[in-house]
Automatic annotation (TrEMBL), chain A:
Keywords attached to this entry: Cell membrane, Membrane, Peptide transport, Protein transport, Transmembrane, Transmembrane helix, Transport
Pfam families referenced in this protein's UniProt entry, alphabetically: BPD_transp_1, OppC_N
Membrane topology, as annotated: Multi-pass membrane protein
Protein name: ABC transporter permease
Automatic annotation (TrEMBL), chain B:
Domain ABC transmembrane type-1, residue spans: 97-312
GO annotation, biological process: transmembrane transport
Compartments in which it is found: Cell membrane
Key word Transmembrane helix present: yes
Membrane topology classification: Multi-pass membrane protein
Presence of the UniProt keyword Protein biosynthesis in the record: no
SUPFAM superfamilies hit by this protein: MetI-like
Highest taxon of source: Bacteria
Similarity section: Belongs to the binding-protein-dependent transport system permease family.
Gene3D superfamilies assigned to the protein according to its UniProt record, in alphabetical order: MetI-like
Protein name: ABC transporter permease
Length: 296, 322
């Protein structure tokens, strides 16, 4: 869902040049950002260790069905109606969520940054045309759009990633365009033109690096919303059938909601943790990269 | 104003044609030719109908001719026939739209009023306990998937407490009419509207808080303070009024996303609206119906955004549409 639209804050562009260690230190001064970092690290650790901690296929039946959490120490989070280990599903699901979230964001970044940069730099008719297309993509309800694409192309990790990426870029394009417009007629660009730099060089080496701060903040929010979209698609049965997905686990757990509500509850908590972590991180980055905005 | 309307009509035309283009290519991406997709899975349409469809859509014609005939059909609201549902697509959509609008309207009203109030309170007490609590709660709801909120509300209020119905829009056997029926629908509406509303409540809380703080930093607020205007009056008359505009903007921008959320909520609660229809179409692989819904909901978004633009001028007379 287009969470980004209001979450793309007007971050000052100059702060990006600050050295990396001070950025991290600034981030660590904010308790909420620290919480976000810890959660995020935990989820990355889960994704990385999934094959070591739970080497078996999480879709395999390993124990008797409907073991409640805590009932059997070997299955701390219990098993679902098919006797699949829920903890294993959550570990492996972290992998799928992060992968799709990251790659889909990359797709959005490529489309959004290119569109925004070209649009803002060249202006005129090209800008008007590109912005019309951006508006068009903003008008089509993004989730419904992604749903239609996945339904038509058949659900698999690549098609889901593509569908999320192709529907999430417009807000990014607008953000980058606005940033580029701020710099386009500044002295820095004028100097580069006077020195005979090519358009490509000016955009890639001079303008885009200065838009990095707000783009990084938006990207972390975009990953969060991509994870939400992926889990929503999987919940509706549009997940890759060969891998386990948090949203798919919630969807499956719905059938036994009356008696065994933990099956649908636990994977949902994992989604909340992941999305919350990325949002906290995004907020923290925004404050850290934008000291002027932190007036509270 | 006339110039504005003319320009926005041009924009609407562009968007509608653009969506038709997207739909056309999505249909072509589907396995099988468009006639097969239009007719749903094999076996649900007669060979005569398939032949008629191929002729109607001119599938033996060059691509641009195909597109033009598709466009003609879309513009005359001939979105095809759903064999699975036994009804023309446009009629199906018209039948289901009111339920979705009721759900969305209730959720938005809830989210804007409660979220706005919470954001207002958080901004007035910025940095203090009330602000921390409100902001944290908003952040958590903002990170919670809509469908999971729905499932959890069902667990608590329908399964454990047995206060509210699990799903549907009205009790089937009751045969209620008039006010009784309205009360019945309202009771069924509570959980779905709450589910959809909570996510957007978080958005409007955050937005209202940020927007209020932004206005608090402006010169005219300092002037008002210097004049000795009471803080309460500053908050209500000076800050709130100016902070409302971004809320209206976001409402327009978010509409498409709220529609997406409605699909999930309607699926969880078997609410008989457009989203539920999209889910059924998905399940039955009735791709043409799905694309018809995509088209119609985009058109709804376009027109609501037009309405939002017009609402601007009422809210803020300084804004002129040109």
């Amino acid at each position: 869902m287009a969470l980004l639209d209001f979450a793309s804050p007007p971050v000052s562009s100059q702060a990006a040049a600050a050295p990396r260690d001070t950025l991290l230190r600034r981030l660590l001064r904010r308790p909420s950002a620290v919480v976000g970092l810890i959660f995020f690290a935990l989820i990355i650790a889960m994704a990385a260790s999934a094959d070591i901690v739970y080497p078996d296929d999480p879709l395999d039946m390993v124990a008797q069905p409907f073991l409640w959490p805590g009932q059997d120490a070997a299955y701390p989070l219990g098993t679902d109606m098919l006797g699949r280990d829920i903890a294993s599903g959550i570990f492996h699901g972290a992998r799928v969520s992060l992968l799709i979230g990251a790659v889909a964001t990359l797709v959005s970044l490529v489309i959004g940054v290119t569109t925004g940069a070209v649009s803002g730099y060249y202006g005129g008719r090209l800008d008007a045309g590109l912005m019309r297309v951006t508006e068009l993509f903003q008008t089509v309800p993004p989730f419904l759009f992604a749903l239609a694409i996945v339904a038509i192309l058949q659900p698999s990790i690549p098609t889901i990633t593509f569908a999320i990426g192709i529907t999430a870029w417009p807000s990014l394009a607008r953000l980058v365009r606005a940033e580029v417009l701020k710099l386009r007629h500044g002295e820095m660009v004028a100097a580069s033109i006077a020195l005979g730099a090519s358009d490509g060089r000016i955009i890639l080496l001079h303008i885009l690096p200065n838009t990095l701060a707000p783009v990084i903040v938006s990207a972390s929010i975009l990953v969060a919303s991509a994870i939400l979209t992926e889990s929503s698609l999987a919940f509706l049965g549009l997940g890759d059938p060969n891998v386990v997905s948090w949203g798919g686990m919630v969807g499956a757990g719905r059938e036994v909601l009356r008696t065994d509500w933990y099956v649908a509850t636990l994977p949902g908590l994992a989604i909340v943790a992941a999305v919350l972590a990325l949002n906290l991180l995004g907020d923290g980055l925004n404050d850290a990269l934008n000291p002027k905005g932190a007036r509270r | 104003m006339a110039r504005y309307l003319k320009r926005s009509l041009g924009q609407i035309a562009f968007v509608i044609i653009g969506i038709a283009v997207i739909n056309f290519f999505l249909l072509r991406l589907a396995p099988g030719d468009a006639a097969q997709v239009m007719a749903g899975e094999a076996g649900s349409a007669t060979p005569e109908y398939m032949a008629a469809l191929r002729q109607q859509f001119g599938l033996d014609q060059p691509l641009y001719v195909q597109f033009l005939s598709y466009l003609k059909n879309v513009l005359t609201l001939n979105l095809g026939y759903s064999f699975r549902q036994g009804m023309p697509v446009s009629e199906l959509i018209a039948l289901r739209l009111p339920a979705t609008l009721l759900l969305m309207g209730t959720s938005i009203a809830f989210a804007v009023s409660v979220g706005g109030t919470l954001g207002f309170l958080a901004a007035r007490h910025a940095g203090r306990l009330a602000d921390t609590v409100i902001s944290s709660v908003a952040l958590v709801f903002y990170a919670t998937p809509v469908f999971w909120i729905g499932v959890m509300l069902v667990v608590v209020f329908s399964v454990l407490l047995d206060w509210l119905p699990v799903g549907g829009m009205a009790s089937i056997e009751s045969g209620l009419t008039g006010l009784g029926y309205a009360a019945d629908v309202a009771q069924h509406l509570i959980l779905p509207a709450l589910t959809l509303g909570l996510f957007y409540l978080a958005i409007y809380t955050r937005l209202m808080r940020a927007s209020m703080l932004e206005v608090y930093g402006q010169d005219f607020v300092r002037t008002a303070r210097a004049k000795g205007v009471r803080p309460r009056r500053i908050a209500l008359r000076h800050v709130l009024r100016n902070a409302l505009l971004p809320i209206v903007t976001t409402l327009g921008v978010q509409l498409g996303s709220i529609l997406g959320g409605a699909i999930l909520v309607e699926t969880v609660f078997a609410w008989p609206g457009l989203g539920r229809l999209a889910f059924e179409a998905l399940f039955q692989r009735d791709l043409n119906l799905l694309l018809g819904i995509l088209f119609c909901s985009s058109v709804v978004v376009v027109f609501v955004n037009l309405a939002v633009d017009l609402a601007y001028t009422v809210l803020d007379p300084r804004i002129e549409l040109s």
